[in-house]
Every structure is written in C-alpha cells, then in structure tokens.
C-alpha cells in the first residue's frame, strides 16, 4: 500500500501586487500554517519518502518550513516548474513517474490543479466526511491523504482512497 499526500501551498502575500505570480512569497499567516502542517505530518508519522514541489517561491517556502518541522527524516524536495499551475491531468502524469520504491509521496502545488486532482482521485472506500470537506473548499496549506494500491505508474482517477483531509483551521493554536 502506498500513500499520496497532496498539499496546497500556504497563504501567499499580496503586499506587492505588481510582483510576478511565480515569485510571490508567503504571508506571515502562510508561514505559520506551513510550519503547522509540517508538524501535523510529523506527528501523524506521514513524513514522505519523496517530495515533488512546484518551483514557485511560495511552494518552495511552504516546503522549507514544513520540512523543518519534520526533522531529519524529511526528504530533499524535487523542484519542478511543470507543477506550477498544472492541471490535474498534468499532476497525475508527474505522480505516475514517481520511483516504485517510494512508499509515501508528497506533491506540493497550486489550485485549481491540486484540488481537481484530489477530488478526481477519490474513489471507492474514501472517507465521506473528508471528501465532503475537500469538495467544499481546498484552502491554502490544506492536505489530502490517500492510500494507493498498486504501482504509481498505474494510478488513475477514482483510483485512490481518501483517508484524511486536514486544514490548518482544524488545529487551533
């Protein structure tokens, strides 16, 4: 059994509205949420074996803050510009290329692709409450956790089981 973790980047800053979207940094609230979700991953024992991270600044910052909370077990991220604003189909194609030795894969990207992929992957046996929350809204720094049977290369839509959907607001400070 494999696990797929889909994480949306944390809240970005709009302090400089003329800044290129790709180069927008995290807002203070986003920095706190990224660290919080890293702690959540560590506390649940969901530290990934591999991490695919969009090359955009806000996703790299989200990963750096989350990984710091995971400690020494956090993998080095593979940054990929192809993840930036990618469609669900494109994200799925990248997941299918994950090494077969990878038991737990984290993909950190952007909406609407991450949300569309998460909703599309949820197949039979998915947690109904988690799926309802996911479909209602996939906010910044939210995490969808799936179990996947079979190889990454064979993963398709409705081919995974959603087990958890966690948002920063689920963890009061």
Word description of this protein:
- The chain has 173 residues and is of the alpha/beta class.
- It contains five helices and six strands, in the order E-H-E-H-E-H-E-H-H-E-E.
- The protein has helices at residues 28-44, 57-70, 88-95, 113-121, 128-136, and strands at 2-8, 50-54, 77-80, 104-109, 143-148, 161-166.
- Helix 3 crosses helix 4 (113-121).
- The longest helix is centred in the N-terminal third of the chain and has 17 residues, at 28-44.
- It starts with a strand and ends in a 7-residue tail after the last strand.
Biggest β-sheet strands, sense, barrel: 6 strands, mixed
Strand order of the largest sheet: 3-2-4-1-5-6
Low-confidence stretches at least 5 residues in length (pLDDT < 50)? none
Q: Which band does the percent of strand residues land in? A: 15-25%
Helical content, roughly? 25-40%
> Counting H and I runs of at least 4 residues, what is the number of helices?
5
Radius of gyration equals 15 Å
Secondary-structure element pattern, one letter each: EHEHEHEHHEE
Would you tell me the structural class of the helices and strands? alpha/beta
Distance N to C terminus:
33 Å
Shape by Cα distribution: globular
- Say how many strands there are: 6
Residue-averaged pLDDT:
97
Element layout with pairings:
Blueprint lengths: L1 E7 L19 H17 L5 E5 L2 H14 L6 E4 L7 H8 L8 E6 L3 H9 L6 H9 L6 E6 L12 E6 L7
Parallel strand pairs: 1-4, 2-3, 2-4
Antiparallel strand pairs: 1-5, 5-6
Helix pairs in contact: 1-2, 3-4
């Amino acid at each position: 059994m494999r696990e797929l973790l889909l994480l949306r980047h944390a809240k970005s800053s709009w302090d400089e509205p003329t800044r290129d979207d790709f180069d927008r940094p995290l807002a203070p609230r986003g920095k706190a949420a990224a660290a919080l979700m890293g702690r959540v991953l560590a506390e649940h024992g969901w530290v990934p074996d591999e991490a695919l991270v969009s090359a955009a600044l806000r996703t790299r910052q989200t990963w750096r803050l989350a990984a710091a909370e995971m400690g020494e077990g956090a993998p080095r991220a593979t940054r990929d510009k192809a993840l930036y604003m990618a469609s669900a189909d494109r994200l799925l194609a990248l997941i299918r290329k994950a090494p077969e030795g990878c038991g737990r894969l984290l993909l950190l990207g952007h909406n609407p692709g991450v949300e569309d992929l998460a909703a599309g992957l949820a197949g039979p046996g998915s947690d109904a409450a988690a799926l309802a929350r996911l479909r209602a809204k996939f906010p910044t720094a939210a995490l969808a956790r799936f179990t996947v049977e079979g190889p990454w290369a064979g993963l398709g839509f409705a081919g995974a089981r959603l087990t958890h959907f966690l948002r920063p607001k689920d963890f009061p400070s």
